[in-house]
From TrEMBL, chain A:
Residues 172-189, 238-299, 312-330, 416-425, 438-449 have a biased composition (Basic and acidic residues). The lineage of its organism: Eukaryota, Metazoa, Chordata, Craniata, Vertebrata. This is NOP14 nucleolar protein homolog (yeast). It comes from Hippocampus comes. PANTHER family: NOP14 (PTHR23183), NUCLEOLAR PROTEIN 14 (PTHR23183:SF0). Pfam families: Nop14.
From TrEMBL, chain B:
GO terms for cellular component: Noc4p-Nop14p complex; nuclear membrane; small-subunit processome. This is Nucleolar complex associated 4 homolog. Residues 318-467 form the CCAAT-binding factor domain. The lineage of its organism: Eukaryota, Metazoa, Chordata, Craniata, Vertebrata. GO terms for biological process: ribosome biogenesis.
């Protein structure tokens, strides 16, 4: 019996089944197990046994299971009734039928897809779909209830008080007669059938009535219309008054129920798009735009699309804005009026305005135009955004704007709310032409369009594979376009769109970073381009942190390595070039600066510190570079407020450069500065009076590379700006480091410099103010501090001598074992027991089977014997008869 | 034997023979000269080439000369002894043989002079060729001395020639370091080294006396390059490599004795250091002093004057002098008064930035490793270092912090600097006097190391971590600072760069829109994109 699912043996099962009292009390059946010792308090389960009963039970069980299996042994086919509850003897047959019916219904309405929110089962009311009813198409239907005036219909009551499905209710109704023990003449099934039949019939009748009523109403309406004109003069009120009288007033509660029933359920809005889908959409959009552009470049005519102005519902979310090409205005009120009529006028006016402005600046340089355009674009799109119910992000807007341009070109509509910078001029020309020869496109126009398309940016790009490719791709474009190119490249080659894209874009991160450095190295450095490309770098970095981190690390590592090499040879190095400064800044933009340890920013900060200590200041350019580094350093530590000694050293050294008289001490300067020497007067004003004409300015970044001054005053102004920047940074540092224990000691040289040495240099108002502010902060810092002590440690508890109490749960068993050992013992014991039990069972099984087989054989033999006997008997009678016949014949 | 000028004229007419031809010519001429005395006058042809403008001509000529005269020297065809004037000899009545010898000797002298001139030639190749040639002559002369060797104390070594070469090498106007480095190859020979050293001493004495206390940077640089690279033998047995083999009286020869070598070496250095040196020369000398000079001197204590003077100069020079002083104190029982006070005063902000930082801390560690130092001194050092650490770069901080910890560990009574629980709780001003020169008076023991507390906020994670060690009692084991002594910023960076590339990299969550934003970042407030 290897099939027994539980570990309990058959004997156990048998024991559990209650045996009848007669048998129990029959002394011939009972076997008493003799106990050797009586143990108090121990309950023995097996002191009395019923061996006969249990044996017979075991045999019966075997007959039910093992024997059946044995009989079925070599047979492959089998009939299984899978109907619900078929083998459950406890269930009443009616119940079975009911359950089956319920299950059937349930299966029918069961949802196909668990997560599919869209395909909801259709809810019905009287066999009509609720969704259709929501539309209130058939007004007559709603009059149903009025037919039975005043009385609540059964259905209504049911819907109010039933609480559950109709089935339940019906069942309970049907059950009553059963309980009463009344005549069971009608079975349940019949009852239900009857019910269904009845309701169907009722319904049919009602339908017929309704149709008749409707016909009548229509007829009445028709007649009414014909006589309406005649009745206008008469009191129409009388008629109207009648209706409320006829209809019973709807009660508040009913209204509520209705409302709740018909209340719009939360409809699933358009599915949230996964990033992959978005990316695909973006790419498709760009591809489409590109195809358009190419087509126009080839000079093909656009299929004419009538600019039909169809209004959209105010609730339209513009979800499918990609698909509808014309920019439809939503129907909405504006200042209490339709926006329908006014808009074209408004747009026209705006367009003209823009045109005028464009013409004005038309003669100017390209860049100016761009700037102007940008401003206007901003303004225009804002207005638009107000008008439209459109919450698209700025980027989307940009894209959309691009789309709109194309439309404009064909339609000649004065609806400009944005366009790429390059075409603006051309477009305006085009528009002028359009005004004159609108109906058909002239040749010139088409040509112009071609040119415009050529000048326009392509919409799809392949990812550049090398630095050269990237440069080729970007060179010759304006900063804004370069940004656009990079953005489009990213979109077209989103990693989810193709397999190799990820690698390509990862490579692009490094290339782009290199390109930034290269831009910074040009003379003059193209910082605006860098500025524009920053968001792209950022988004790429967000996509591929590993790659960005790696390339940034290589850049920083290379810079540090080259500096280290120079340092080893010469002992000091030149200040880092502009590209390195830019990289440091970019690193701060891309990675968090406040981390305790970060694979990029920590080395970057180290590099800054190194540069501030090892690079001697030999010129004003060096001063500027140093100040840039200081700014970066302040930025890096502004969140974490970490202490950067090099920063304070450099700032105090810079102030020292402005001191006229270097002899007086009171502070010490730290390398790379020297207390006196060749370059230690860099920031001393050549003309002490030049401060009078100075005003605050920001320093240009290019000044780190080269500086040229028209005259001494100019140079002096530059010096003053440097000093000012330095002091500003110092005041920031004061705030940052205010909480440090050694604040005063750290700032001691600065206190000395500001209070004693620079008092007469800092004459201008802003400088004076800064100086007093810094000195105030320094003066306010507390000098006293409490002594250092070690952190308090948790006291180590003393050793105690109270005995340790261990709870012993199993007396009389082996002690001193660990829990695992005990468990092992227990399991081993159990295994042994079970094994023995199983062995015994198997033996019994085989014995049983053998006896059955023997039985079979015996039965078969007996049968055979019987048959043989029979045959012999018949033969004997035959023979006897034959002999008797013979004898008779003979006779 | 035709008159020489005629020959010269003839040669002058020969217009620019190609180099190859010149070489063949020269070789054949040399062969001719060597073959028979008839062609002796062809020597002038060679000299003509020697003085030509073209580099290759000169070099071939130098080779030819070296060939010619070394063969002649070997054949002993040069006049020995005191040389009579050429005209006298030619007109005088001696044998034709003698006359020939005298003539050749004169030509030899001319040649040597020309080669010496060439040592100052602007082309290095020529300088080098000439030097090699001269050294070949010197070797040949050593084997076949041109002087009469009658007296016992005269050893056959061409001292005059050597002196002349050294004089030329130690130029007052030209940087000869390249040639000198070539010359060092010859200094492998022990006797050459010995004689060169004494020649240098003579030369230095002569030249510097003339300059009357002025520094002569180029000259002194030359001298330094020459003498700093002299590698002295360590043991007597190493003295076996001689250029001139002395047949007899070997054991009395000075050049064969180590003690004599040492003496000459010592005299040479003292002679050099006696005069005022340019600033960077001081540093260079001090850098090599302890391992290249002091061990090879017979009486190293003679250096004490120089070292004390250097120690008093201050700054980096003092730091470097420490090393020499240490050797003297350690191995030669030098007693230096107020040594620790001076050491204390050496601690300035610049020690963290100078090149010799590692060496200084290594030595300071040695000096302060004594357990017999008074606590006030140790505390003063610890406090001063901590104060200076406020201006130090991270690489220096990684040295200084363990250094201070080690001090505190060695002298447990100085633990009050980081742990003073018994004192009243009210805060107090730092009683330490930074400007006090005397470590005994600076009240360091009454202070606490708040500076290290400050450094717990240092930007570099390693430094900040090290600084937090003072929050708990220090471990017993001393930190080994030798491994951080030579660390550079780049190495520190690389540690961070190599780390954690596998983990995810944290990113800035605030989207960057532009390079400099005026509102937020500090850089945007002060700089613009121009």
């Amino acid at each position: 019996m290897g099939k027994v699912p539980k570990k309990h043996s058959v004997a156990d099962k048998v024991r559990k089944v209650k045996t009848s009292a007669e048998i129990k009390n029959n002394p011939f059946e009972v076997k008493i197990n003799r106990k050797k010792f009586d143990v108090l308090g121990r309950k023995s389960k097996h002191d009395v046994g019923l061996p006969g009963v249990s044996r017979s039970k075991a045999i019966n069980k075997r007959k039910e299971t093992l024997l059946k299996e044995y009989r079925q042994k070599n047979k492959s086919s089998k009939f299984i009734d899978r109907r619900f509850g078929e083998y459950d003897s406890k269930m009443a047959p009616e119940e079975k039928i009911l359950q089956r019916f319920a299950m059937e219904r349930q299966r029918a309405i069961e949802k196909k897809d668990m997560y599919n929110l869209n395909e909801e089962e259709e809810l019905t009311h009287y066999g009509q779909s609720l969704s259709e009813m929501e539309k209130f198409t058939d007004m007559v239907n709603s009059d149903d209830e009025s037919e039975e005036k005043g009385r609540l219909s059964a259905e209504l009551t049911a819907s109010h008080f039933g609480g559950g499905g109709g089935l339940l209710r019906k069942k309970s109704a049907g059950e009553h007669p059963d309980d009463d023990g009344g005549p069971k003449a009608k079975s349940r099934q019949e009852l239900i059938e009857e019910l269904i039949h009845k309701s169907k019939q009722e319904k049919r009748e009602r339908q017929v009535q309704k149709e008749e009523a409707q016909e009548l109403t229509e007829k009445l309406d028709h007649d009414w219309k014909s006589i309406q004109t005649l009745m206008v003069r008469k009191k129409p009120k009388a008629q109207r008054d009648e209706t409320p009288v006829e209809k019973p007033k709807l009660e508040e509660y009913d209204k509520m129920v209705r409302e709740l029933g018909f209340e719009m359920k939360a409809q699933p809005s358009e599915k949230m798009k996964t990033p992959e889908e978005l990316a695909r959409e973006d790419r498709e959009k760009l591809q489409k735009l590109e195809a358009d552009r190419l087509r126009r470049m080839m000079g093909d005519e656009e299929p004419e699309v009538a600019p039909s102005r169809s209004h959209v519902s105010a609730d339209d979310l513009h979800d499918g804005f990609i698909l509808d090409k014309d920019d439809k205005k939503t129907l909405a009120y504006q200042d209490g009026k339709w926006n329908l009529d006014e808009e074209p006028v408004e747009n026209g006016a705006k367009g003209e305005e823009e045109e005028e402005e464009e013409e004005k600046v038309g003669g100017g340089s390209n860049e100016e135009v761009e700037e102007e355009e940008e401003e206007e674009v901003g303004g225009g799109s804002n207005e638009e955004a107000e008008e439209e119910v459109d919450d698209a992000s700025s980027e989307e807007e940009e894209e959309k704007d691009d789309e709109e341009e194309e439309e404009e070109e064909e339609e000649g509509e004065k609806e400009e709310d944005g366009h790429s910078d390059l075409e603006s001029e051309r477009e305006s020309e085009e528009e002028e032409e359009d005004e004159e020869v609108k109906p058909e496109k002239s040749k010139e126009e088409r040509k112009a369009q071609q040119e415009a398309a050529k000048a326009e940016l392509p919409y799809t790009f392949t990812v550049p594979e090398s630095a050269n490719d990237l440069e080729k791709l970007l060179c010759g474009h304006t900063p804004d376009n370069q940004r656009l190119i990079m953005a489009r490249t990213q979109k077209c080659n989103h990693p989810s769109l193709a397999v190799g894209n990820k690698l390509k874009l990862q490579k692009l991160v490094g290339l782009l970073l290199d390109y930034l450095g290269e831009l910074a190295c040009r003379s003059p450095p193209e910082l605006t381009t860098i500025d524009k490309l920053i968001p792209e770098v950022y988004s790429l970095c967000q996509m591929f942190p590993q790659a960005a981190c790696k390339s940034m690390q290589t850049i920083l590592g290379d810079a540090a390595h080259s500096m280290e090499e120079v340092l080893e040879v010469k002992g000091n190095a030149a200040f880092p070039t502009l590209d390195v400064l830019i990289y440091l800044k970019v690193a701060a933009l891309l990675f968090p600066t406040s981390d305790f340890r970060h694979p990029v920013t920590t080395p970057a900060l180290l590099y800054i510190g190194q540069a501030l200590t090892k690079c001697p200041v030999r010129s004003l350019e060096d001063v500027t570079s140093g100040l840039v580094l200081c700014c970066l350093a302040v930025e890096y530590v502004s969140f974490s407020k970490r202490f950067l000694p090099e920063l304070i050293n450099f700032l105090s050294g810079t102030l020292h450069l402005a001191v006229r008289d270097k002899t007086s001490a009171g502070y010490s300067v730290v390398p790379p500065f020297r207390s006196a020497g060749k370059h230690s007067d860099l920031l001393v004003l050549s003309d002490p009076e030049s401060w009078k004409s100075w005003s605050r300015k920001t320093l240009p970044l290019s000044a780190t590379q080269q500086l040229a001054f028209k005259n001494d005053v100019h140079a002096d102004h530059y010096r003053l700006t440097c000093v000012y920047t330095c002091m500003e940074l110092l005041s920031k540092c004061c705030v940052l480091y205010k909480d440090l224990v050694c604040f005063t000691h750290i700032f001691q040289p600065i206190t000395a410099l500001l209070s004693q040495h620079l008092s007469f240099t800092l004459l201008t108002e802003p400088l004076k103010e800064l100086r007093t502010a810094i000195l105030e902060v320094l003066g306010a810092a507390p000098l006293a501090r409490s002594r250092l002590v070690f952190n308090k440690k948790k006291p180590v508890p003393l050793k105690l001598f109270t005995p340790k109490i261990v709870q012993v749960l199993d007396y009389g068993k082996k002690r001193g074992q660990t829990r695992e050992q005990k468990e092992e013992h227990r399991l081993r014991h159990k295994y042994k027991k079970e094994f023995k039990g199983a062995l015994r069972e198997i033996r019994k099984d085989t014995r049983f089977l053998a006896s059955e087989k023997l039985d079979d054989i015996m039965r078969r033999d007996a049968e055979r014997k019987r048959k043989v006997k029979e045959l012999f008997g018949s033969l004997a009678t035959q023979e006897g008869e034959w002999k008797a016949l013979k004898r008779r014949k003979r006779k | 034997m035709a008159p020489s000028h005629k020959r010269n004229v003839k040669l002058g007419k020969l217009s620019k023979p190609s180099v190859k031809i010149a070489k063949i010519d020269l070789n054949s001429t040399v062969d001719n000269i060597l073959e028979s005395k008839k062609h002796a006058n062809d020597v002038f042809d060679v000299f003509e080439f020697l003085q030509s403008e073209r580099e290759k001509d000169v070099i071939t000529a130098v080779e030819a000369c070296s060939n010619l005269f070394s063969t002649l020297l070997e054949r002993k065809e040069l006049f020995k002894g005191k040389l009579p004037a050429e005209d006298d000899a030619l007109s005088g009545e001696c044998s034709a043989e003698d006359k020939y010898h005298i003539f050749i000797r004169h030509r030899y002298n001319n040649c040597v002079e020309m080669l010496l001139e060439h040592l100052s030639h602007e082309l290095h190749a020529i300088q080098e060729a000439s030097l090699c040639c001269l050294m070949k002559f010197a070797a040949a002369e050593g084997q076949h001395p041109l002087e009469d060797l009658d007296w016992s104390e005269h050893y056959s070594f061409p001292r005059e020639l050597m002196q002349a070469i050294v004089d030329r090498l130690l130029s007052r106007t030209m940087d000869k370091s390249l040639l000198i480095s070539r010359f060092h190859e010859f200094l492998e020979k022990d006797d050459i080294r010995y004689y060169v050293m004494s020649s240098i001493r003579e030369n230095v004495g002569k030249v510097m006396d003339k300059s009357k206390g002025e520094v002569m940077p180029v000259y002194q640089h030359n001298v330094f390059t020459l003498i700093s690279n002299i590698s002295m033998p360590k043991e007597e047995s190493e003295l076996s490599n001689f250029m001139v083999k002395q047949e007899a009286k070997h054991e009395h020869w000075k050049a064969a004795k180590l003690i004599e070598h040492k003496r000459t070496f010592e005299r040479m250095w003292l002679g050099f250091l006696k005069y005022k040196l340019p600033g960077n020369m001081y540093k260079k000398v001090l850098v090599i002093l302890h391992d290249a000079i002091l061990p090879h001197m017979s009486k190293p204590t003679l250096m004490i004057d120089f070292l004390t003077a250097a120690y008093d100069v201050g700054g980096a020079i003092s730091l470097l002098a420490l090393n020499g002083l240490f050797v003297l104190m350690h191995e030669h029982n030098l007693d230096y008064p107020d040594f620790y006070k001076k050491l204390y005063n050496l601690l300035e902000p610049s020690i963290f930035h100078v090149k010799y930082r590692a060496r200084f801390f290594h030595l300071a560690n040695l000096f302060l490793s004594s357990s017999h130092l008074p606590v006030y001194l140790v505390a003063a050092f610890a406090k001063r270092l901590a104060r200076l650490a406020l201006t130090a770069p991270p690489t220096a901080l990684l040295i200084v912090l363990p250094f201070i910890y080690n001090l505190i560990r060695r002298h447990p009574s100085s633990r009050v600097l980081i742990h003073k629980p018994s004192a009243e709780d009210e805060p107090l001003e730092d009683p330490y006097l930074m400007d006090e020169d005397d470590p005994a008076q600076c009240h360091a023991l009454e202070s606490s190391l708040w500076e290290i507390k400050t450094l717990q906020r240092h930007y570099h994670p390693d430094v900040a971590k090290t600084a937090t060690l003072i929050n708990t009692p220090l471990s017993q084991k001393e930190d080994d600072i030798s491994e951080v002594l030579e660390i550079t910023t780049f190495e520190l960076m690389e540690r961070n760069l190599k780390q954690t590339l596998t983990k995810s990299i944290p990113l800035e969550f605030e989207a960057a829109t532009q390079l400099l934003s005026v509102g937020k970042d500090v850089m945007g407030q002060h700089f613009c994109l121009e």
